[in-house]
Amino acid sequence: MGTAERASGLRVALSVTCVNDAMFPETGKAVVRLLRRLGVEVDFPQAQTCCAQPMVNTGYLDEAVPVVRTYVDAFAGYDAIVTPSGSCAGSARHQHALVASRAAASGRDPGLVGAVAAAPPTYELSELLVDVLGVVDVGAYFPHTVTYHPTCHSLRMLGVGDRPTRLLQAVRGLRLRALPGAEECCGFGGTFAVKNADTSVAMGADKARHVRASGAEVLVAGDNSCLMHIGGVLSRQRSGVRVVHLAEILASTEEGP
Q1: Tens digits of per-residue pLDDT, 8-31?
Q2: According to CATH, what is the number of the domain 3-132?
Q3: Hey, is 137 helix, strand or coil?
Q4: 0.85 cut: is pTM over it?
Q5: Which CATH class is domain 145-251?
Q6: Cβ atoms 213, 171 nearer than 8 A
Q7: Which of 26, 153, 244, 247 could, after both became Cys, cross-link 87 (CB 3.0–4.6 A)?
Q8: Would you tell me the crossing angle of helices 96-106 and 61-74 to the nearest 10 degrees?
């Protein structure tokens, strides 16, 4: 079955994420542009808010209950949810059931367990492209030297593996360089960067050093939160290396760079 057949009739909803909505809206627009080019019907449910990861990661499970309820209600009825974030996809896939169990035990929302179980699957962007649509060459063009940083949640929680690099290797004009120490954390980690600022900055500096050693013009990743952290270090070092989300590279064409 080809990509067009897999995409036909598939109703996908975009979960754009809080960080992208507030600071990097071009990433969400790139996802929509890319998927529509591949023939996928993609919507942006206006009722969506947060995936609840900030509350869960800091131990506020009761406060996460209404947020998870909003998520499952906003995306009900679609075939799949796609998000340009390994971190938020990981939250939906692995944390929502935990929050729902807590909600049932406390009586705050006894129906949330069933709602989470019935919710459409949430995919990180590269998973949707490779696993669901069966496509690696998305028709992109990006004539630059690029290195790829696998973010912690996409690597360790979701196990996206080589999907992003397979997509990048199929982009015309793109020259992909290996990133030394690629599997090491960048040091962002949400509130980790706030609570452990010195350690976070040191880890970011290590990652930036590896990026510069790769000789790449562009650092790409599947999470803008990590790119924001590493990009801040690279910018202060006046490295000349820019950061770009994976979705924006895959959405680029010769006609629309």
Answers
A1: 789 999 999 999 999 999 999 999
A2: 3.40.50
A3: coil
A4: yes
A5: alpha beta
A6: no
A7: 153
A8: 110
Q: Residues 126, 246: contact at Cβ < 8 Å?
A: yes
What would the mean pLDDT of 169-195 be, rounded to a whole number?
A: 93
Kindly state the average pLDDT of the residues 185-202.
90
User: Residue 134, by phi and psi: left (phi above 0), alpha (psi -120 to 50) or beta?
Assistant: left
- Rounded to 10°, the helix 86-94/96-106 angle is 40
Rounded Cα distance, 150 and 206, in Å: 15
Tokens describing residue 72: 């499952």
Query: Residue 236 CB: number of other CB atoms within 10 A?
Result: 11
Task: Return all residues near 156 (Cβ < 8 A) that are at least 6 apart.
Answer: none
From 18, 8, 90, select the one nearest 50 (Cα to Cα): 18
Domain boundaries of the chain, sorted by first residue: 3-132, 145-251
Same fold across 3-132 and 145-251: yes
